[in-house]
Amino acid sequence: MLPFFGKLRVRLVLLTLLALLPLGVIAMGQAVRSADINRDRIQQSLIDATNVAAVDQSAKIKQAVGAGEGLAAIVPVVDLDTCRAAMSQLLRSNPNYAFAGFIRIDGVLECSSSGDLVMDFSEFPSWQAAVDRSDTFVEVNADGTVSGQSVVIVNVPVRDAGEMLGFVSLSLPRTAVTSAAPFEDSEDVALFGVATSGAVFSLSKGATDVAQYLPRDMSPSDLRDKAGRIFFATDRAGERRAFSVTETVADSFFIVGSWPRSVVFGNEQWKQALTPVLFAVLMWVASMSVASFGLDRMVLRHLADLRSAMRQFALGERHSEGLSLNNAPNEFKDAERAFNRMALLITEAEAARLTDLHDKEVLLREVHHRVKNNLQMIASIMNLQARAARTDDVRDVLASLQRRVRGLAMLHRSLYTQPETSQVDARDLVSAVVSDTSAILPDQALAIETDLSSALLYPDQAVPLSMWVTEALTNAVKYVGRSPDGAASITVTMRTDVPGEVALEIANTLGAPLVASPTGVESTGLGAKLMLAFCRQLDGQVETEETDHLYVHVLRFAVQDFDPEPADLVSEEREAARVG
């Protein structure tokens, strides 16, 4: 089951919905029947609205036809100036017209409301079609040739004794034939005139670009055939719409209303039809509200408090006064007591464990401190003994032992001075050995250069590493020399480029020896044997590289977890001595 459906609130909603499903089915059936009745009523109202709008448009166009016929009667019997005066008088007396003029049969316009304007329409395709018709017709022009505005043009033929002389043309601007409500309140409802030529003219205030509202793949004749009824079609914008058609001037001009489907199947008309469904929904919402409130008050809020207390306890919060559920049922009160008891037991156990850990840490630090003090005391005794020695050989041996003891003392000092008593940073350890070794450098101008990376080690690796570095640095100091360019140097580099692996490199220059080293005795090979034993304790590998002017000693080993049974140093030393 999906996690969402596992929630208690979701399951309650689904059960309540299932219980009220029969009531919803009955209400839906009533809503469908009511919607059918409303849809039929709305479709008839759309037809009536289109017819009402068409009556107004038809009246204006027929009025223009009558005015054109009156001008057509006087044009043949008057001169040009009188004709122009009559056209201008018509526009002055009736502001609904944008232009009036007489176009001769040859297509030349001389008599018009524009005064002495002369134009030739003989090359216009629309003029040739008008001559071929030779009867009254209406056309639409989105950009009037003379008026320069969107107009409906009424053309009335002029005859004299049966002879065709031309046409009286009257232009009605769009504002003069724009429909009133219900079209003016919505940009998505369009009323437009369509001429048989296919030209379209917007007649509603709410829409100006009506080309997108035309039915797709339907000719003007197809539209005219659907006059007097509602039909549904896809417009040129790809939207499914309702259309109603009414003729105004037979065979030349008709009016089309384009309605969005929401008008027929919209929210407003569905309100009454959906009353039963809404009642069922309201019942479901009321039931859900009561059930949800009760569930929240009696169950969910207590579960949330219990979950919050458990989360805080899991995150380490131990200072709260315990869980307290307000007005909870008995079952949750039992859970409250069980949780508080569990929290108390765990808190007490953790406190005891922390006390034990603190005591152990104090004891461990004290052990490291005392070991460090004892080793320093041994080193001091060796120093006193070396001062009292009568031969250089004894003093050198004691000095060598003293350095090794001090190396162990520095390790224990690091363990009890750092926050982490179980691990020591190899960088700090090597730095301490370098500082201690710097005291025996044969030349004060010589310094040990270091470049060390951090690496945490447990004591079973830190001890042999410290001793190996002590021996290696002692050898480097003993054999360091000046290269041909006069430089002498000792460098200590520690890298952890490979995760979990340490590479420690000690390099010294070779050449002309420096001032005689304090050791100054014949080498016994003990240092090499000890370094081999320490390397084995680290489970590492040693690489050496020697040139005429440089000696490089590299120790590589992997950082390991704590080993409760580390290798025995004495056994390692014996093995190294046997191999040597």
Question: What is this structure, in a nutshell?
Answer:
By secondary structure, the protein is of the alpha+beta class. It has helices at residues 8-19, 21-74, 80-93, 125-133, 174-177, 220-225, 261-265, 267-273, 275-314, 330-388, 392-417, 426-437, 459-479, 526-537, 569-579; strands at 99-104, 108-112, 119-120, 137-141, 151-160, 163-173, 190-195, 200-202, 230-234, 240-249, 253-260, 424-425, 448-452, 456-457, 481-482, 490-495, 501-509, 512-513, 541-546, 550-558.
Number of domains: 3
Indicate the proportion of strand residues.
Answer: 15-25%
DSSP helical segment count: 15
Span between N and C termini?
72 Å
Give the overall silhouette.
elongated
**Would you tell me which CATH topology of the largest domain applies?**
Beta-Lactamase
- Approximately how much helix is present in the residues? 40-55%
